[in-house]
């Protein structure tokens, strides 16, 4: 009964109480950092893109990403991958990163469940990637939780950037904060588990998957992965050294694509590398939080292999 009453509490008081219980004395500092403006890097290809509206060669458009999001995408091994899946891809930033580090024979399948968000995803792919790369990206609109009913063990590498509580956005939106309850976290975990269990079935034996969220609560991060371990015996989590080796290999390919938004032409890969080093180890993955990550994040990510 006490738990039911607790879940009925809403608003900033409930929000503060919930995350103070998780982070203790750290919460006030973390909350203050979440309320500050996001840190971004600029992704920009020098190649030419296709355009239905204009004739001739059109420069690629720029796209802005949280450096912590770049870290999560760069932690997925794709060097030997023919088929890579970004299961919940909108708005498209991580798909831009993945498609830019694919091998020459690799293809990326970028999927989004919402038709409106799928349109935005398709536009990002078309306008921010040169034609030789965008031609190897297939954009689809499908429910990732149900995808495993029509395919299994079909992809070499999968990125699952799962929908989550997104506390940074909640905290900076008065309407969402007013309506927040602990039940929001519980609702998200149901959706996350459906997507994660589907994605694992879609992954080939020997393949790799990155599970990521921008959530703060362990329930949406390590505890979801704990369920995966109990359900499937083939799960193997990669160590920090193994993840860093993948990150470093992928990062080299982005050196000429990432820039500081406010410093003309200055490359921002060092910021992404520094952000990666600030990730702290959790039970199954790594967490980048803005109070210790110089404003980047929050991003949780974990790299696992299907044995």
Q: What is the topological layout?
A:
Elements: H1 2-8, H2 12-23, H3 27-34, E1 41-43, E2 48-49, E3 58-59, E4 63-65, H4 67-74, E5 83-86, H5 93-101, E6 107-112, H6 115-128, H7 131-134, E7 137-141, E8 155-161, H8 167-171, H9 174-179, H10 183-202, E9 203-213, H11 222-231, E10 235-237, H12 240-251, E11 258-259, H13 269-277, E12 280-281, E13 286-288, E14 299-306
Parallel strand pairs: 5-6, 5-8, 6-7, 8-9
Antiparallel strand pairs: 1-4, 1-11, 2-3, 9-14, 10-14, 12-13, 13-14
Give your account of this protein's structure.
It is built from 13 helices and 14 strands. The protein is of the alpha/beta class and 307 residues long. The strands form three sheets. Strands 5, 6, 7, 8, 9, 10, 12, 13 and 14 form a nine-stranded mixed sheet that branches. Strands 4-1-11 form a three-stranded antiparallel sheet. Strands 2-3 form a two-stranded antiparallel ribbon. A hairpin with an 8-residue loop joins strand 2 (48-49) and strand 3 (58-59). Helix 4 crosses helix 5, helix 4 packs across helix 13 and helix 10 (183-202) packs across helix 11 (222-231). It starts with a helix and ends with a strand.
Question: Keyphrases for this structure?
Answer:
single chain, 307 residues, alpha/beta, nine-stranded mixed sheet, three-stranded antiparallel sheet, 14 strands, 20% strand, disordered N terminus
């Amino acid at each position: 009964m006490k738990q039911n009453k607790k879940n009925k509490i809403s608003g900033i008081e409930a929000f503060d109480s919930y995350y103070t219980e998780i982070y203790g004395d750290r919460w006030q500092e973390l909350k203050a950092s979440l309320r500050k403006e996001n840190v971004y890097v600029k992704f920009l290809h020098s190649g030419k893109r296709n355009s239905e509206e204009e004739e001739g060669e059109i420069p690629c458009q720029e796209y802005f990403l949280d450096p912590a999001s770049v870290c999560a995408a760069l932690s997925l091994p794709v060097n030997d991958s023919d088929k890579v899946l970004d299961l919940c891809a909108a708005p498209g930033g991580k798909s831009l990163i993945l498609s830019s580090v694919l091998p020459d024979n690799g293809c990326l399948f970028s999927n989004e469940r919402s038709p409106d968000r799928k349109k935005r995803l398709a536009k990002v792919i078309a306008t921010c990637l040169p034609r030789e790369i965008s031609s190897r990206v297939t954009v689809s609109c499908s429910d990732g939780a149900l995808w495993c009913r029509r395919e299994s063990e079909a992809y070499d590498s999968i990125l699952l950037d799962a929908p989550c509580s997104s506390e940074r956005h909640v905290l900076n939106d008065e309407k969402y904060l007013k309506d927040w309850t602990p039940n929001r976290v519980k609702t998200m975990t149901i959706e996350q588990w459906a997507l994660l269990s589907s994605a694992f079935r879609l992954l080939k034996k020997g393949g790799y998957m990155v599970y990521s969220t921008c959530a703060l609560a362990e329930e949406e991060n390590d505890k979801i992965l704990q369920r995966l371990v109990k359900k499937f015996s083939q799960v193997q989590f990669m160590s920090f050294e193994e993840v860093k080796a993948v990150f470093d290999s992928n990062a080299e390919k982005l050196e000429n694509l990432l820039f500081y938004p406010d410093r003309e032409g200055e490359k921002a890969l060092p910021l992404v590398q520094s952000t990666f080093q600030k990730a702290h180890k959790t039970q199954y993955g790594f967490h980048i939080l803005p109070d210790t990550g110089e404003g980047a994040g929050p991003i949780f990510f974990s790299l696992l292999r299907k044995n």
